[in-house]
């Protein structure tokens, strides 16, 4: 059993090393970044957010990309599940500062608990925001953003007004 574990570790290490050498060998791969958000909140309300994104660095000022999003929100009165797709554009006018536009489309499944009624519909959102990117670990950084949903659909996963988000990005 011990030999199997050691062999597995060496095998995984060789895959990681091979992936890193291939990833840096082409110009396209050098311009990819992976990031997104993951969030959990529990208490009177429950919130779960899983939102990975893949971006392409056009130049030192502009990144474009796409992502998927799953959000679950619930409390004593309702339970909402959102599955969505987004595209984004990020501009870095000066180092560490980022401005972002992010249109999204969600399919929401909403269930009210007091009358057991279920509703399903498409919900558009359009986020505008800005914030800072704090470099961490050499090839990545943490972003702290302030966002606003311009559409303000009543079924949006983003509550009315300004909200904050925290994410992490890793350059491939």
Structure description:
With 172 residues, this protein is of the alpha+beta class. 16% of the residues are buried. It has helices at residues 2-23, 27-30, and strands at 32-41, 46-57, 62-74, 78-91, 97-112, 117-136, 140-149, 162-171. It starts with a helix and ends with a strand. Strands 1-2-3-4-5-6-7-8 form an eight-stranded antiparallel β-barrel. The protein has two domains: 1-30; 31-171, Porin. The protein has two helices and eight strands; from the N terminus they run ααββββββββ. Helices cover 15% and strands 61% of the residues.
List the helices and strands and how they pair.
Layout: H1 2-23, H2 27-30, E1 32-41, E2 46-57, E3 62-74, E4 78-91, E5 97-112, E6 117-136, E7 140-149, E8 162-171
Q: Give the mean pLDDT.
A: 83
SSE series: HHEEEEEEEE
CATH architecture of the largest domain: Beta Barrel
Largest beta sheet: what is the strand line-up? Answer: 1-2-3-4-5-6-7-8
- Helical residues, percent: 10-25%
Which CATH class of the largest domain applies here?
Mainly Beta
Largest beta-sheet details = 8 strands, antiparallel, barrel
N-end to C-end Cα span:
34 Å
Structural category:
alpha+beta
**What fold name goes in the CATH topology slot of the largest domain?**
Porin
Radius of gyration: 19 Å
Strand content: over 45%
- Low-confidence segments, given as residue ranges, are 1-25
The overall number of domains is: 2
- Number of discrete helical segments: 2
């Amino acid at each position: 059993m011990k030999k199997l574990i050691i062999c597995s570790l060496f095998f995984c290490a060789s895959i990681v090393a091979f992936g890193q050498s291939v990833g840096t060998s082409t110009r396209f791969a050098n311009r990819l970044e992976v990031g997104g958000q993951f969030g959990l909140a529990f208490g009177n309300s429950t919130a779960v957010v899983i939102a990975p994104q893949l971006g392409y660095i056009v130049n030192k000022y502009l990144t474009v990309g796409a992502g998927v999003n799953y959000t679950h929100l619930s409390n004593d009165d309702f339970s909402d599940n959102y599955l969505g797709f987004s595209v984004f554009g990020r501009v870095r006018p000066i180092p560490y500062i980022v401005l972002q536009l992010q249109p999204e489309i969600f399919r929401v499944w909403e269930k009210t608990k007091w009358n057991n009624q279920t509703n399903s519909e498409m919900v558009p959102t359009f986020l505008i925001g800005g914030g800072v990117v704090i470099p961490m670990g050499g090839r990545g950084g943490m972003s702290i953003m302030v966002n606003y949903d311009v559409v303000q659909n009543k079924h949006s996963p983003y509550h009315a007004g300004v909200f904050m988000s925290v994410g992490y990005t890793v350059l491939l």
